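REVIEWER CHECKLIST
Item 1: Sequence provided? yes
Item 2: Single chain? yes
Item 3: Sequence as submitted:
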Amino acid sequence: MINRRLLRIKILQVLFAYFRSNNDSLSNLEKELHFSIEKSYQLYLLVLLLPEALADVALEKIELGKQKFRPTADELNPNTRFVDNPLIHILRNNQALKQKAKDSKLSWKNYPEVVKLLYQQLVSSESYHKFMSDDEFSLDTCRQMIVNFYLNELENSDEFDAFLEEQSIYWNDDLKFVLSMAAKTIKKVREENPDALKLMPLYRNEEDKDFAFQLMAKAVLKHSDNVGLIEEYTQNWEVDRIASMDMLIMEMAITEVLEFPSIPVKVSLNEYIEIAKFYSTEQSGLFINGVLDKIITTLRQQKKFEKQGRGLIGDIAETPDDINSLEPDTE
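Item 4: Structure as written out by the authors:
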């Protein structure tokens, strides 16, 4: 599930804290990275548990309406489309989701007020109104309504943002990516049965897992060399005045170019320049691009690295595995 863009960001965050404290061992650093990645997956599970919690709120409101002393006609004959949603039935009965949630101690039951706030956002949305009044009622319409809720409501919800911030320092930066992964999971449900929903694995493959921990370890081990290299190509700058985040982004980029022969240079540079736009100053992208361009050009001329693998002739190829972004899926 976790793509390489997010892995790079996780490593950047862990290394930033490590170099500022300078108290941790490499083994502790690896534990922190693993914990950070696990938290992203837990947020993915929590998002998939949310529709069931929302349906429970809706059902409770329906039952309370019926129990009123003088219920209205709508309360006596409520629209039960949302609580009868076949997709929610699939989520509610998916054993893999339930077991993983239990193992991670994840539940919305301890946050009833948050769920009620999010339910109000749901019922106020245009996609919900369309779903409740549409002539068609199918797994497709249920699926699309939930996906719209994820990508249009939750992603822009101040209440949800505040909740995540209270629960974990790891979650706010993950939200956009996690919601897109949850939406992809929902979109793949094609049959109305509890096993129709297939959870994504924590890592897409073993290569991604190895990439993450090797990149972090090598960035630590090559720290002094990389700082020296950056100093050499920023002679008109005092290194201690370069933003710490800019330095670390450049260190990671150099490490990746030198230590991972199967990843094209263009991919590595593009990734870190994009990351710089979100995690450093407005000018950082241009500055980092300029410095790295000089360093990589020189290292290439000195034959300090060689790219290998299919499609790397001239080192201009881009591979799908390395160009995954945080943008939500639009299929």
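Item 5: Key structural point noted by reviewer: Residues 231 and 238 are 8 Å apart (CA to CA).
Item 6: Recommendation: ____
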